[in-house]
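TASK: fixed-backbone design
INPUT:
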């Protein structure tokens, strides 16, 4: 294990005690945020075997929900799996694992790269592969804007154009409703918020925040990034809503969404 990875784990261990006092309870919702599986060596790139073990853990616990189910009336909360961007590994590595473990997931799709190369390339999954994913009944496709630009310093009209273009493409190409949205880089603005509320039933915004029962705004959902340095113990803590304190580290370093503030 490298020095950087050790430092990251030490930071998680330091903030974990605060989370032990307030784990996820009935009605609370943890939305896990993934990016890539089986490719790359970065912090947001998970090895296939690690992701497989995580999905088995969620399946055995029986707490994985679709986003609509988790937010429905009388929901018990639970855990929702989400992916951002729509890179080729979603079809190659993620989808088979979801099917094996019967785990529902939301893919927040940045439509620009897909539309530029509709048959797929090194940057994006293909529309045909997305149709296959949707046909399983496990995958819901939401919007992640068209160009993946941060919506911090844009006008309301510009934000709406990014959202609407992506939403319209998803609904046209996949013939499904696109009712969910996630902000690129977990960063938004009041102007973008107004646009998102007009166009979508939900919007994912905050990083490292468990959604607590009775205090959840469906247009400002919190998500918990799953990272390479988590290991299985810290992953289990995140799924139980006990590592929101990791945000303090990233805020102090002005990383993640705080780079835009």
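OUTPUT:
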């Amino acid at each position: 294990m490298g020095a950087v990875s050790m430092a990251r784990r030490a930071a998680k261990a330091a903030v974990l005690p605060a989370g032990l006092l307030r784990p996820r309870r009935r009605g609370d919702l943890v939305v896990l945020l993934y990016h890539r599986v089986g490719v790359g060596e970065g912090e947001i790139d998970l090895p296939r075997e690690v992701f497989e073990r995580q999905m088995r853990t969620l399946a055995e616990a029986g707490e994985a929900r679709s986003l609509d189910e988790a937010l429905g009336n009388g929901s018990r909360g639970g855990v929702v799996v989400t992916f951002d961007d729509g890179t080729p590994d979603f079809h190659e590595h993620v989808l088979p694992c979801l099917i094996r473990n019967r785990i529902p997931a939301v893919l927040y799709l940045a439509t620009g790269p897909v539309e530029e190369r509709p048959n797929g390339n090194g940057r994006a999954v293909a529309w045909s592969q997305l149709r296959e994913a949707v046909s399983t009944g496990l995958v819901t496709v939401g919007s992640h804007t068209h160009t993946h630009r941060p919506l911090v310093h844009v006008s309301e009209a510009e934000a709406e154009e990014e959202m609407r273009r992506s939403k319209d493409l998803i609904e046209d190409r996949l013939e499904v409703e696109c009712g969910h949205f996630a902000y690129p880089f977990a960063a938004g603005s009041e102007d973008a918020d107004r646009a998102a509320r007009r166009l979508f039933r939900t919007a994912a915004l905050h990083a490292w925040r468990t959604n607590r029962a009775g205090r959840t705004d469906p247009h400002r959902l919190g998500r918990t990034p799953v990272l390479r340095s988590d290991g299985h113990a810290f992953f289990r803590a995140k799924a139980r809503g006990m590592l929101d304190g990791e945000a303090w580290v990233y805020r102090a370093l002005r990383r993640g969404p705080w780079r835009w503030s």
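COMMENT: The first helix runs from residue 3 to 20.
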